[in-house]
Amino acid sequence: MNDQPLVTHPFDREEEDALQQLFTSFCNHLTLGQWELTRVCLRGLFEQRNKLNKPSKEILRAVIDQPHHASYGSQSIPSPFHLSWLCLVEYLDLFTDEEDQIPEPIVKKVEFRLLLYLACQKAPQNVIQDIDDYHSQIVYRDPDLFSSGVSDLPSSTLSYLKQLLSESPQFGRAVINDLTSKGKGFLKNNQFIAATLCGPHK
Length: 202
Description:
The protein has helices at 14-32, 35-47, 56-65, 80-94, 104-119, 125-140, 155-167, 169-178, 187-198. It is mostly helical. InterPro entries: ZFYVE26.
């Protein structure tokens, strides 16, 4: 009589194995840029979050903070900035307790970087970097504590913003609106940006 291979089944680990398979599917779909399938897996992981070795909110936060390393991208996730924003939307919907809230500066940066990607696809990389750096000064620093030391936008960047405002007014106004701050430290720059892009007030 030939020896038959033993059939193994994780009778005592079915739930654990199913959860591991769900997490593996989440990672695979995320890597391949299959957002809708990623979202389905994410929701399933959230429902079983108390059984995960790594908290689901930490998984989402990691993707929000480091989207460039999480996915190859696809038609549904055309850029890391889209992925970061999509995960942010899911996070804000799933985690509503005050202790789980993402700091407002991070939310603003995620939203602004997606806007910058959509609005400035033809911009030189140094211009995009200048705009992003300036915006970081606004969201990460208390402008009232910095009456001096706020970096100006280079003339080449202001010229690009003026061009953007002319060619795509809606995007241009959205970007410029995010580059103005009510803080005292930015008042001079706000006036300079307005005068350069829109002309002097009459």
